[in-house]
Amino acid sequence: MMTNRPNILFIQVDQLAIDVLAAYGNAVAKTPNLDALAAEGTVFENAYCNYPLCAPSRFSMAAGQLASKIGAYDNAAEFPASVPTYAHYMRALGYRTCLSGKMHFVGPDQLHGFERRLTTDIYPGDFAWTADWSKDGFEGATDIRMLTTSGICARSVQIDYDEDVTHKAIQEIYDCARPTEDRPFFLQVSWTHPHDPYLSLREHWDRYTDADIPPPRIPMPSHNENDPHSLRVLRQHGLADADISPEVIQRARRAYCGTVSYIDDSIGKLRHALHESGQADNTIIVFCSDHGEMLGERGLWLKKTFFEPATRVPLIIHAPHALQPGRCDTLCSLVDLLPTFATFGSDGAWAGPVEPLDGISLTDIDGQDRTIHVELLCEGILAPIFMLRRGPYKFITSTGDPDMLFDVVTDPDEQQNLATAHAHITADFAAEAAQLWDTETLAQDVRRSQQRRLLIRKAHSQGVAPGWDFDAGGEDDGRWYRGKGNYNDWAFDYLKPIKRIQP
C-alpha cells in the first residue's frame, strides 16, 4: 500500500564480478534489467565489500561494523543476536521487515531483526565450516571441479533455491500492496547466483553463442613472482599446479555470464511486480553483491583475496527522490548500507545508531575523502590480513607477508607493487593499520573462537544435534547444503539424476 515513507527493496546477489557488467564499462554479460536500473539510478563506481567472503561480509554489512568488531571471523562464526542490524533499525522505524533468500546467518538467531523469512537458507546455520588455523587445508573448500564440471545444466540445486526465492519475493510484493497494515516494507531478496559452481541453464547459455567473452587479462604469475597469499588460495582450491585449458576457462566464464543473465531476468520479474502492484513509484531499490569474483584473473577464482575483482562490488541505488541519478566515484563500502537505509526510512531524520558504526549514509558521501577498510580472518591464512583503500592507493598488509601497495587508478590490474618504491606512503598506511587493528590480540581472539566452535561442533556430533537451520514452514527437505561433506560433492551430486548437459 502507498505510504508517506518509501518502501525499500534490497536486492543482493552472491559473488558478482564487476568486470562483466555494462554499468561498470564492461559489456560482457547481457543484463538489460540491471542496465536500466543503473541508467535510472545512482551507480557507485568505487564500492567495496569489507570482507571478501560470504558470511562475514553479510554480517559486517548488516551490522554496519567491521567483521573483527562483531566476531564474524569466518563462514561459521556466530552472528551475535545482541548486535543490531539494519533489519532491527528499520523495524524500529516502523517498517515491515522480510527476507527471501540467502543470508548465511550462523547461530540460533536466524532472523536478526527480520519479522519473517520466506525461505530456508541454502547454507548451514551451525559451526560446520569453522576455520582451523592449526591445520593445513580446509575440508569445506571448493575444489577444481568448479571448473572441470562447469557448463550447461537442466537444473541445479542452486537454481532450485533461487527459483523459490524469486517466487516467494514476488508474492510478498503483491501481498504488501494489499491494505492489511499501514507500514512500508523493507524486503531483502538475496539470490545465491552467480556463486559457483558455474552452471547455466541452456536458455541463458545460448544468449552467448556469438558473444565475445574475453579470457582473463592477467595470467597466473609463476610461483616465484606470485604473492604468498595468492599461492595459499591457489593451493587451497587445487589450482596451484593444475593445467587448466583455455577451453575450460572459457566454458566456466560463459556459464558464469549465463547465471548473471539468469539473475538479471529475476530482477526484471521483481520490478514487473512492483509496477503491476502500483508500488514502483514509492519503492527505493538497492542492488549490490556481497563480494566479487576473480573469474580466472591471475589464475584465481572465487574470492578470499584483496585484488579488485574480489573486493570491488557493484552497488546501484534507484531512489530518484532521495539521490540524484548519475554516477558517484567517492569511495564507499557495504557498511554504509545500514545508515543509508535508516536515512531513507526516516526521511533524513534518523536519530542515529545506539553504538558507533563504521559506515556513513551514502546520501552524505559525495566528495568525501574516505578510507575503506577490508579484512580477511578465515581459513587459508597465517595471520589476519588487512586492506586499506584511500585516494588512488590500495595497501595490503599481514604479519609474515610482504606489504603490497598499488595505485589502482593508473594500474587497475594491480601489476606493480609500489610498497618499496613509495616507502613513505607504505609507512603511513602501515601506521594507520597498526592503529586500527591490534593484530596479535585479534589473532588470539580468532584462534580462541575457532577452538571453542570446533569443540562445540565435536560435541554436537554426538547424540542429537541442535537444529539452527531456518525452516520456513517445514520445507527444509534436506536438499540444501548443511556442512556434511565437501561443498562440491553436494553441488554436483545433486545433478546426477538430471545430468549435466554437454555444451
Characteristic key phrases:
alpha/beta; Alkaline Phosphatase, subunit A; 503 residues; 8-stranded mixed beta sheet; 15% strand
Mean pLDDT: 93
Number of domains: 1
**Biggest beta sheet summary:** 8 strands, mixed
Architecture per CATH nomenclature, i.e. the level-2 architecture: 3-Layer(aba) Sandwich
Give the proportion of residues in helices. 25-40%
List the total number of helices: 14
Shape, please? Answer: globular
Radius of gyration: 22 Å
The structural class is alpha/beta
Number of beta-strand segments: 18
Can you list the strand order of the major beta sheet? 5-4-7-1-9-11-2-12
pLDDT < 50 stretches = none
In CATH terms, the superfamily is Alkaline Phosphatase, subunit A
Kindly report how far apart the N and C termini lie.
46 Å
The share of residues in extended strands comes to: 15-25%
**CATH topology grouping:** Alkaline Phosphatase, subunit A
Top CATH class: Alpha Beta
Q: Quaternary status of these chains?
A: single chain
Structure description:
This protein has 503 residues and is of the alpha/beta class. The strands form 4 sheets. It has an 8-stranded mixed β-sheet with strand order 5-4-7-1-9-11-2-12, with helices on both faces. A 4-stranded antiparallel β-sheet has the order 14-15-16-17, covered by helices on one side. The protein has a 3-stranded mixed β-sheet with strand order 10-3-13. Helix 6 runs parallel beside helix 9. The longest helix has 31 residues, at 246-276. It has 14 helices and 18 strands. The radius of gyration is 22 Å and the shape is globular. It has a single domain, classed as Alkaline Phosphatase, subunit A (3-Layer(aba) Sandwich), CATH 3.40.720.10. The protein has helices spanning 32-40, 54-63, 67-70, 86-92, 145-148, 157-176, 202-205, 228-236, 246-276, 308-311, 337-345, 423-436, 439-460, 487-493, and strands at residues 7-13, 42-44, 47-48, 96-101, 116-117, 151-153, 185-190, 199-200, 283-289, 312-313, 315-318, 326-328, 332-333, 371-376, 385-390, 393-398, 401-407, 500-501.
